[in-house]
């Protein structure tokens, strides 16, 4: 994560891509998956695209065609000895193929296993009983949504980039937006109690970087890593809180909208 002109720009992603030729011509617009689906992180996997920044994506779900779109799947960079299961933004053409532009490489906006990257030939499975399970090549459990037996009917990647396990009534059982990592995307909400934590390095995805942001019941606080963490910026509300809903911050229309005492559709308490 990079620190830019404003403290909060380190925590959201803006899609900026160039249009170039598609490196895979297969039509691809599959935003959902059924129970008993599985995917292997294989070099021969369909929709595996490598980029000139030394990153590679192997998409298993993709939402939409033509332009910057959300996809989820396996992601690596550098030597690609280790991988993340992530939601990322990629450029697609009108046929739904992922393109490889010379600018605007894949942008990871969420990852499931940032502290436990896996190897080639790891397997992701949506089990018959509704658990989304990631196992390394040797069978070691790397990550799970722990949703077995919770009436999951399928997996959906929404237009907002939210990875959702849903039930027969389309209600959310589990969603990636409830487990943010180090980025906010347009429309995403950071609710009181949630945090964004920077990665250690661009080449080390584990949390524990220098900067973090926490949403509290009173507002937003940014920290520098220390023992204890040192707050270096805050936007807090100290008056009587008339809002019965949990406080939250929302990234919308290029701005952070902070709701502590107010609630939508009313305007935010702060806009920055």
Automatic annotation (TrEMBL):
Record-linked Pfam families: B_lectin
Bulb-type lectin domain: residues covered: 48-178
Gene3D superfamilies in the cross-refs: 2.90.10.30
Keyword Cell wall biogenesis/degradation: no
Top-rank lineage group of the source organism: Eukaryota
Lyase listed as a keyword: no
GO molecular function, one term: kinase activity
Region forming the signal peptide: 1-25
Swiss-Prot/TrEMBL keywords: Glycoprotein, Kinase, Receptor, Signal, Transferase
UniProt-recorded name of the protein: Receptor-like serine/threonine-protein kinase SD1-8
Biological source species: Sesamum latifolium
């Amino acid at each position: 994560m990079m620190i830019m002109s404003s403290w909060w720009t380190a925590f959201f992603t803006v899609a900026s891509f160039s249009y170039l030729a598609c490196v895979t011509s297969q039509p691809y617009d599959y935003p959902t998956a059924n129970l008993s689906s599985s995917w292997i992180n294989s070099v021969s996997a369909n929709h595996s695209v490598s980029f000139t920044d030394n990153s590679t994506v192997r998409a298993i779900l993709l939402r939409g065609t033509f332009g910057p779109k959300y996809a989820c799947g396996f992601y690596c960079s550098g030597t690609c000895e280790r991988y993340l299961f992530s939601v990322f933004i990629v450029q697609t053409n009108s046929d739904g193929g992922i393109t490889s532009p010379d600018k605007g490489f894949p942008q990871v906006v969420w990852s499931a296993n940032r502290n436990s990257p896996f190897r080639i030939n790891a397997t992701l499975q949506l089990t018959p009983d509704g658990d989304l399970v990631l196992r390394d090549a040797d069978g070691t459990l790397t990550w799970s949504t722990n949703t077995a037996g919770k009436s999951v009917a399928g997996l959906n990647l929404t237009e907002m980039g939210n990875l959702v396990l849903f039930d027969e009534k389309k209600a959310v059982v589990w969603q990636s937006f409830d487990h943010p990592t180090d980025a906010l995307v347009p429309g995403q909400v950071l609710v009181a109690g949630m945090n964004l934590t920077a990665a250690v390095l661009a080449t080390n995805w584990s949390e524990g970087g220098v900067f973090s942001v926490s949403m509290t019941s009173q507002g937003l606080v940014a920290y520098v890593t220390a023992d204890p963490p040192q707050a270096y910026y805050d936007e807090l509300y100290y008056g009587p809180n008339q809002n019965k809903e949990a406080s939250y911050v929302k990234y919308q229309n290029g701005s952070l909208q902070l709701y502590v005492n107010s609630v939508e559709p009313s305007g935010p308490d702060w806009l920055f």
